[in-house]
Amino acid sequence: PPDVEQLGRATWTFLHTTAAYYPEKPTSNQRVNMLTLLRSLPVLYPCSHCASHLDTNIKENPPDVSGRVALSRWLCERHNDVNSRLGKLRFDCSIEKTDERWKNGPSD
Ligand code: FAD
Question: What interface predicted TM-score (ipTM) does this complex get?
C-alpha cells in the first residue's frame, strides 16, 4: 500500500499549487474541470479511509471554484480539517499566507 504521509504531502503540494495558479476569473471549462478533479478524489484517492473522510467533508463543504482566492481558501480549510483530525497545527488560510507558501515564497 502507498505511504499515506508521503502521498499526502505530494497530493497537498499538487492541489495547493494548482489552486494558487488557478485563474482569478476561470472560464466555465476551467471551473468544470477543477470541480471534476476535486470530486474525483473521494472516488480515486488511494488511501481509503482518507477518501471516505474527504467524501463527507466535500459534501458538507462544496468546492468554491469561482476563482483562485476562494479556491485557495476552500482547499486550505479542507486541509485544516484533516490537520485538526490528525492533531496537527492549523494553517492561516488568508491569501497572503497561502500564496507565500504555495506561490510567491516569503517576501524577504
Ligand atoms: P502535510 O499535512 O502533508 O502538509 C504539507 C505542507 O502543507 C505543510 O508542511 C505546510 O507547509 C502546508 N500546509 C499545512 N496545512 C496547510 C493548509 N491548511 N493549507 C495550506 N497549506 C498547508 N492522513 C491520515 O493519516 N489520515 C487521513 O484521513 C488523511 N486524509 C487525507 C486526505 C487528503 C485529501 C490528503 C491530500 C491527505 C490526507 N492525509 C491523511 C495525509 C495528511 O494530510 C498529511 O499529508 C500527512 O500526514 C503528512 O503530513 P505533514 O505533517 O508532512 O504535512
Answer: 0.99
